[in-house]
Design goal:
The chain has helices at 6-27, 33-57, 71-90, 105-118, 122-134, 142-168, 183-207, 215-236, 267-277, 287-294, 298-309, 313-328, 339-345, 351-362, 366-371. It is mainly alpha-helical and 374 residues long. The chain has two domains: 6-240, Rhopdopsin 7-helix transmembrane proteins; 253-371, Homeodomain-like (Arc Repressor Mutant, subunit A). The radius of gyration is 26 Å and the shape is elongated.
């Protein structure tokens, strides 16, 4: 039996956290429940993966041999679940359908491939398991390479769809906190980079086994990081984690070729309405809301904003919010309010997003802008 070390302590901590955080994510509130259920399942499966490493490392397989290599099947479930997490996150009203069962085909093939092993007796499983690693060298393990490519495929699809989402979401929503959720995109990119490095490393082993080092530590430390990031972020601050789905029809709004000549409003009149009525003060303002206020179809409004201003809805609304902030900052009647309070009153519900948008718009931080009036 191997001794505990700093790496196994970290992995043990991550394993325990995954089983604690998974139910917390689901039951903390009803907010965006499908996303939370899928993420909870991912956390549980990753927790089982980490446990499987400890199960082998500490020779627990000698007492519970029927758990040997069950984790090999789990990888074929994590990829599809990551894909479903992305779909529930980015597409409004996304529903599970019978066709989604096709995502289980690789899992079922893997189960069939390993079925003979799973039906062996406990002692025989131990002998096969120990013999496999005693004779392990740089020979290709096609099963292993298959699930690495499988993870890369699903990770890449999820990354592409999330990236597309963040380029489209500004057509429907003006809520600035949506853009603080881009870290999810970056973390999935990291997920893909990790699996790409894993694939390259094991291909190098085919060239020479001299490249060998305990890569399992890297794998399960990464999974612990995944648990820490996704688990705690989703449990402690769901507003900054779970993204807001968009209507699929919104994606094609700006590419429509219909004419603007039949509109009852010009862009100048729209801007005048924005200055007078100030609908942008509502941090949850959507393009559907504004279209109802001025009584024109949503797709026409989106076209008007896109073609006449060169901006999407999010950028258009935030321009007015920034102008309102700039008007209020030097006004003595607002001197009793903090900078963040003024930003919130002007429609920003994320301080980080407000500072970023203000700097992009003016080239100054809010405090630097205020100092110009001193």
């Amino acid at each position: 039996m191997n001794d505990q070390n700093i790496w196994t302590l970290i992995i043990t901590w991550g394993t325990i956290q995954s089983f604690i955080l998974a139910p917390i994510v689901v039951f903390k509130s009803e907010y965006k429940q499908p996303q939370k259920i899928v993420l909870s399942l991912i956390l549980l499966l990753i927790g089982f993966q980490s446990f499987s490493f400890l199960h082998s490392y500490f020779d627990w397989h000698l007492k519970s041999p029927h758990l040997i290599w069950l984790n090999s099947l789990i990888w074929f479930l994590i990829g599809p679940l990551l894909f479903l997490f992305e779909r529930f996150s980015t597409v409004k009203g996304y529903k599970l359908r019978s066709i989604h069962a096709l995502h289980l085909i690789p899992f079922l093939i893997a189960l069939t491939y390993m079925w003979d092993f799973f039906t062996l007796g406990g002692e025989t499983k131990i002998r096969v398991f120990e013999s496999f690693y005693a004779n392990y060298s740089g020979s290709p393990d096609l099963f292993f390479y298959t699930y690495i490519i499988f993870e890369l495929t699903y990770g890449s699809i999820s990354y592409y769809n999330f990236k597309k989402y963040f380029s489209e979401v500004g057509k429907e929503y003006s809520r600035d906190s949506i853009y603080t959720q881009k870290w999810v995109l970056n973390f999935i990119l990291l997920f893909n980079i990790f699996w790409a490095i894993t694939l390259i490393y094991h291909l190098l082993l085919l060239v020479s086994f001299e490249f060998f080092f305990p890569y399992d530590y890297v794998t399960y430390i990464f999974l612990t990081l995944f648990i820490q990031t996704f688990g705690f972020a989703s449990a402690l601050n769901p507003d900054s984690f779970f993204v807001t789905p968009v209507n699929k029809e919104i994606e094609n709004i700006s590419s429509s070729s219909s004419e603007l000549s039949d509109l009852k409003i010009t862009v100048s009149e729209l801007e005048e309405y924005m200055r007078n009525e100030k609908p942008f003060l509502n941090p949850e303002l959507r393009i559907n809301d504004l279209s109802r206020m001025i009584d024109i179809p949503t797709h026409k409004l989106s076209q008007l904003i896109n073609k006449e201003t060169g901006k999407n809805f999010f950028e258009f609304i935030n321009d007015f919010r920034i102008k309102e902030v700039k008007k209020r900052l030097p006004d003595p009647s607002y001197s009793n309010l903090t900078l963040n309070a003024i930003a919130r009153d002007c429609g920003f519900n994320s301080s980080a997003s407000f500072y970023r948008v203000f700097k992009q718009s003016t080239g100054l931080t809010p405090k630097q802008f205020l100092n110009t009036f001193s």
